[in-house]
Amino acid sequence: MKTFRKRVLNVNAFIKECFSLFKNFGDLKVAFRRKLIDTSFRERIMLAVTQVNQCRFCSYGHTYAALSTGISSNEIKEILDANFNNVPENQQLALCFAQNFAESKGIVEREYLNHLNSYYGIEKSQDILTLARFMSFCNLCGNTLEAFLLRFKGKRIENSYIFNEIMVVILMILLLPLIFIAGLLFK
Q1: Domain that holds residue 91
Q2: What is the reported pLDDT for 13?
Q3: Checking CA distances to 76, which of 52, 69, 115, 167 falls within 20 to 30 Å?
């Protein structure tokens, strides 16, 4: 029997990330409004983060979204294989940064951020970081949901407990819509 080894959220991490999402929701709205990052660039960032976290739901959704922006299926496959060679050169640094962000579990190295800022400028770099942070959280929510569902198929889940999965799924249903509504109305 295969073991599920993807990173998942526990209740404490989920609540912490929800507070962070609410606190930074304004940054997310700004990233979408100012359009410094076009939709295909945004989808490449989302896929680069998803490649690290391996969320099957996000992989499916962002593959579809990337295809609709004109990104080829070959390029999508390469990004999901952590190969950025065919990504436009002016986007490769952002994808490497987003991938590193996900691999380091959200720890941003100051030197790497400074390099990003000098290449893209502060506003665009902030948008890249915001998108990577949001996507990573969504990936971990998706992985937690997947772990919960796979338990019913008898799959062994590593580094997670059913109580955490149940609570996180319940909290996702209750809190995430409220955060998005409040974020859209008040931030």
Answers
A1: 3-186
A2: 95
A3: 115
One DSSP character per residue, the chain reads: --EE-S----HHHHHHHHHHHHHTHHHHHHHHHS-SS-HHHHHHHHHHHHHHH--HHHHHHHHHHHHHTT--HHHHHHHHTT--TTS-HHHHHHHHHHHHHHHTTTPPPHHHHHHHHHHH-HHHHHHHHHHHHHHHHHHHHHHHHHHHHHHTTT-EETT--HHHHHHHHHHHHHHHHHHHHHHHHH-
Cβ atoms within 10 Å, residue 187: 14
| CATH number for 46 | 1.20.1290.10
Q: Tokens 């976290």, residue?
A: 53
Q: What is the pLDDT of residues 38-58, one digit of tens each?
A: 999 999 999 999 999 999 999
**CA end-to-end distance (rounded Å), the chain:** 47
Do 37 and 127 form a contact (C-beta atoms < 8 A)?
yes
